[in-house]
Design a protein that fits this description.
Blueprint lengths: L1 E7 L6 H16 L2 E7 L14 H11 L9 E3 L4 H9 L4 E2 L2 H8 L1 H8 L9 E3 L14 H9 L3 E5 L8 E4 L2 H10 L5 E5 L7 E8 L2 E9 L13 E4 L4 H14 L3 E8 L5 E7 L5 H7 L3 H12 L3
Parallel strand pairs: 1-2, 1-3, 3-4
Antiparallel strand pairs: 5-8, 6-7, 6-8, 9-10, 9-12, 10-11, 12-13
The structure holds adenosine-5'-diphosphate and magnesium ion (MG).
The site of adenosine-5'-diphosphate has 23 residues, from strand 6, strand 8, strand 12 and strand 13.
């Protein structure tokens, strides 16, 4: 029996997250992998740990699981990039990799990574960086943003989830006030894809394989997220949609992830965002497809098991 590690965030305490961990643990068990579970707040490294950090990591794991001799791979179901980087530096193989998680977690980085790939992206401009003690006294750049993207436009915090950090600005005044209100965090501006507002397509990918898909539709909001009231519908992605998702995860170097597409006029599709830790419980409820099984299968193939 192989031993692997699941890393999650110790501050996210919710049934929704526990369910995901349960799916991964079950899928690992069915492939004869013992999946240990550590949280990022249980992995406090010694302050002075120059040199090889792998023994320190093993010591931390053995505090909780004394009988462990080695770890074959790590499923990193979190966005704690410092921890991810340290674990890779210690020689562990992370799924997803630190870089892929970083580039997906930050929507501006995702855009930068994907823009050269010939993919249809939502026209995007990121806010010029300011300092938290200064903020955006001067919002002149928003005139240029407005001219390029038109109004209404979408404003997003670069790092956000569940639609909670996505805003709609109807005019320049609203764009200014939303920008000032969020001046302590990186922001980006996007063209509002209004054709099928409140609707998006989610394709869960494992390597280059589309394993489960859904259409999300929210009749009451421009954000399709289920948490905000979006409803799920079964959806068979077209070859074109699959090709976009495949290309996006390929460029980002994701082993698994969720690609969100927006729908434009005349069959147009736009990549909205790519999630490195795409929740798959909702899609399981809708389709009966257990993405975790595919994730574990893929990792086992990659590790030669
Ligand atoms: N540029 C856009 N135009 C129209 N709707 C958008 C746009 N960007 C996001 N949305 C809507 O908002 C939802 C949340 O945005 P998204 O970028 O996926 O952020 P999150 O990471 O919070 O899910 C999307 O699923 C989509 O329904
Ligand atoms: Mg999303």
């Amino acid at each position: 029996m192989k031993t692997a590690l699941l890393i999650t965030n110790g501050f996210l305490i919710s049934k929704k997250f526990d369910e995901i961990y349960g799916f991964l643990e079950n899928a690992a068990g069915s492939r004869d992998v013992r999946l240990l579970h550590m949280k990022n707040n249980e992995m406090i490294f010694p302050a002075e740990n120059a040199g090889d950090i792998r023994p320190h990591v093993m010591n931390l794991i053995r505090k909780k699981y004394p009988d462990v001799s080695d770890i074959e791979f790590i499923i990193f179901w979190d966005k704690d990039l410092f921890l991810a980087e340290n674990l890779e530096a210690a020689g562990f193989k992370l799924y997803n990799s630190c870089r892929a998680i970083r580039d997906c977690d930050n929507k501006a980085l995702t855009y930068n990574r994907l823009r050269t790939g010939g993919l249809p992206l939502v026209p995007t401009i990121y806010a010029p960086m300011t300092y938290s003690n200064i903020g955006y006294e001067d919002t002149c750049f928003l005139k240029e943003v407005g001219e390029q993207l038109g109004f209404p436009l979408i404003i997003k915090e670069c790092c956000g989830s569940f639609g909670m950090q996505v805003y709609l600005a109807r005019d320049l005044k609203e764009a200014e006030s939303i920008t000032r209100l969020h001046q302590n965090v990186p922001l980006l501006y996007q063209k509002y894809i209004s054709y099928k507002t409140g609707t998006d397509i989610r394709i869960n990918m494992v390597a280059d394989m589309p394993v489960a898909s859904m259409l999300r539709r929210n009749p009451d909001d421009y954000r399709a997220n289920i948490t905000i009231g979006g409803h799920m519908e079964k959806y068979d992605p077209s070859e074109y949609e699959i090709s976009l998702a495949r290309k996006a995860v390929g460029i980002l170097g994701l082993d698994f992830g969720g690609v969100d597409l927006l729908i434009g006029e005349n069959g147009a599709r736009y990549i909205c965002e790519v999630n490195s830790n795409a929740h798959f419980k909702n899609i399981y409820d809708l389709t009966g497809i257990d993405t975790a099984q595919y994730i574990i299968e893929h990792i086992m193939t990659k590790t030669g098991a």
